[in-house]
């Protein structure tokens, strides 16, 4: 049955709202959404263990700061999250010595832009390059999970341990004394590093207000009719204002999204960074660490740039990846390559690196040693670097095939 919502029904609804005591409906007035823009303003700081603690009490972050005000508490949490994002960006530049690179590379001054982070030698390191891709949601470059950063620590929630380990193995040994040296064998030059930012797909700007059109000239109308129209207009405006107060009590700004050219989705972003940076790098061996939706973005990259990825990428570590080779229509040659060169550390209560069965014919799945999705990258940290070391050594020791006519023909057939 098709519903017919008439103008009368809309006016009746607005009239009903106008009769409601809005403050009583909301039980209590919501405090202003006016939050600090610094950690110090929130009275929080990270201690020497990388844990977020209240400056005065030393207590962890409290979500339910005000009882029975879930929306306000959520907005407060989101405001803190934005500060955390900027804080991690600062760590990437100051603590990890990464450079912030604006994209698109040919962007005009006025168009929306995003950015990635790279080590000084990311494009010039002749040996190895590591590429980090986080999952979907509110996380940005350098993060695995905002929840972990706020509620646990920087090590588990950010990509910083991976970056430091890749760039300077000696530093990570000092910071993580429980890690043994047997798997910590890399070449002296280490890895170049590129940190993707796949969720930074648009900028938000305030939506322009639609000007109210003035009524047509009614000077020739009788005064009584004009007064009646004015009265109806005022009543309608009153009802609309009341509805707007109910819908948007804090009078928050209405925002619109302006998408970033060629980076409007995580998949687009991965392909763009590949074309303009990774493919141009001097590294003989490229390694990916991709968490959750980042794994799907990598598979999409491989579908679009199969031959290039196969020739340049040595190994891929996925952590609880949500990719699906059937839904993404990855071909047989891609699935075969993934079986040989990828490993997915999945959430599981089994011990770390225990084999886990899979119904999909893509890459091996092993336990990350945790059943918490957001922790899979951190818990599989030592195993991932061991996996990369073994893959690197295997590639170095395997003889390069002679370029025969047949192999040359096959290569071009793949293209």
UniProtKB/TrEMBL annotation:
From which organism does this entry originate?
Capra hircus (Goat)
Q: Which GO terms describe its molecular function?
A: siRNA binding
The superkingdom listed in its UniProt entry is Eukaryota
| Cited Pfam families | Arb2
Give me the stretches of Basic residues compositional bias.
Answer: 403-415
According to the record, the residues making up region (Disordered) are 207-246, 395-415
Q: Which GO terms describe its cellular component?
A: nucleus
Domain Arb2 residues, every copy: 35-352
Which GO BP terms apply? regulatory ncRNA-mediated heterochromatin formation
Full protein name: Arb2 domain-containing protein
Q: Which ranges are annotated Basic and acidic residues under compositional bias?
A: 222-235
At the highest ranks, the source species' classification is:
Eukaryota, Metazoa, Chordata, Craniata, Vertebrata
Gene name per UniProt: ARB2A
């Amino acid at each position: 049955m098709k519903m017919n919502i008439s103008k009368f029904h809309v006016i009746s609804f607005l009239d009903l709202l106008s009769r409601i005591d809005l403050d009583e409906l909301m039980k209590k007035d919501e405090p202003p959404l006016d939050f600090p823009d610094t950690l110090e303003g929130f009275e929080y700081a990270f201690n020497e263990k990388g844990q977020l603690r209240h400056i005065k009490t030393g207590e962890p972050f409290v979500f339910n700061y005000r009882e029975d005000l879930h929306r306000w508490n959520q907005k407060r949490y989101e405001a803190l999250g934005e500060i955390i994002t900027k804080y991690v960006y600062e760590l990437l530049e100051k603590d990890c010595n990464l450079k912030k690179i604006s994209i698109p590379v040919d962007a005009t001054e006025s168009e929306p832009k995003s950015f990635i982070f790279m080590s000084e030698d990311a494009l010039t390191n002749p040996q190895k390059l590591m590429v980090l891709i986080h999952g979907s949601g509110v996380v940005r470059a350098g993060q695995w999970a905002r929840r972990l950063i706020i509620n646990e620590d920087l090590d588990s929630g950010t990509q910083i341990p991976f970056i430091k380990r890749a760039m300077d193995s000696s530093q990570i040994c000092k910071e993580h004394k429980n890690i043994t040296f047997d798997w910590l064998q890399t070449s002296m030059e280490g890895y170049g590093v590129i940190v993707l930012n796949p969720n930074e797909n648009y900028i938000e700007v305030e939506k322009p207000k639609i000007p109210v059109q003035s009524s047509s000239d009614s000077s020739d109308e009788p005064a009584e009719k004009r007064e009646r129209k004015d009265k109806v207009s005022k009543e309608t405006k009153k009802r609309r204002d009341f509805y707007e107060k109910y819908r948007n009590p804090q009078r928050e700004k209405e925002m619109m999204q302006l998408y970033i050219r060629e980076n409007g989705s995580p998949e687009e972003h991965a392909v763009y960074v590949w074309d303009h940076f990774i493919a141009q790098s001097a590294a003989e061996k490229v390694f990916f660490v991709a968490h959750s939706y980042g794994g799907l973005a990598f598979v999409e990259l491989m579908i679009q740039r199969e031959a290039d990825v196969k020739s340049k990428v040595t190994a891929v570590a996925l952590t609880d990846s949500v990719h699906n080779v059937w839904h993404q229509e990855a071909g047989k040659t891609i699935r075969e390559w993934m079986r040989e060169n990828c490993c997915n550390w999945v959430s599981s209560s089994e011990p770390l690196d225990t084999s886990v069965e899979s119904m999909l014919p893509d890459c091996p799945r092993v336990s990350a040693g945790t059943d918490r999705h957001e922790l899979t990258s951190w818990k599989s940290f030592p195993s991932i670097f061991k996996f990369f070391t073994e893959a690197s050594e295997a590639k170095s020791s395997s003889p390069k095939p002679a370029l025969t006519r047949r192999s040359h023909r096959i290569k071009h057939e793949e293209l």
